[in-house]
Amino acid sequence: MTVFQVPPFITADSKYEDEYSARRLSRQTASGKLVRVRRGLYLPASVWESMKPWEQERMRIQAVDVLASRHPIFARESAALVMGLPLIHTPRQVQTVVAPGLRGGQSSKGVRRTGSVEGDPVPWTMFGLKVTPPAETARDLALQLPLSQSLPAMDKLMQREILPGSPHNVNLIFTADHVRASAALLPNGTQRRRVERVLEVADGLSQSAGESWSRAIMIQHGFPRPVLQNSYYDDRGLIGYPDFEWKELKILGEFDGFEKYSAQRFLKGKTPSQVVVEEKKREDRLRALGYKVVRWVWADLQDPQRLIGLLHAAGLPSRNL
């Protein structure tokens, strides 16, 4: 995973003071040269516009921390963004928690404050920010968000890999039991069962948020549970690891995320067109083994009926058919 490098803010009292006095900051913001991230904190418009939506939200989180009189504890989607747990949608507010017994539930200028759970462990410090630990963050997402939005983070946690920026001298690898222990601290059974339902279908073999989102749609619409990332061979050797497998039905599923054809860590020195050709050859080899291969993209997840239609057309049954 690539760690997000936080660019420095421009402020009236920063090293840019000669060039950007408070008045000049306002003028350059009005002219579109600067973007005001939060009161007194700016970025060049070119830097801001080059950022993805989640990176812009990450900067808003950073700005809240910079302006706070004491470091807030970021939670839920905000904590997930800091620690690298995947999200489907960029949150509309910066999420923080306050100690039990203090007032929570207030929204102020884009910041949501809620009460923390009695008995939760002390926050972690990651990349200089205080956050709820990973197990509590995944628990809170499962509690507050629908399955399609909470499963990607839970799947990531179940990969049992150390998250970049994790502190030393703490447990760094998490299992379902850690999340269950965290869920046991919730005040009522309805909340605990909600978290458990996400845990029951979480799978650390999921390789991306898109694959997790795909599986959530399958689960919610009654499709058979797929096997993930199983290896396939023919007389030429290893073909690959299809994202989804329904072996009894001779159906394989592949989610095609944009990064597969754009990010260098996936291209591995190849051009996008070369990757497309290799994918086609791999698919031909799978079809030669007697499997039907169905593929889908982000747009098919944004309108779930499109994915449902593709799976039905491939011959995959569901309870809703």
UniProtKB/TrEMBL annotation:
Recorded superkingdom: Bacteria
Record's protein name: Transcriptional regulator, AbiEi antitoxin, Type IV TA system
Organism: Arthrobacter alpinus
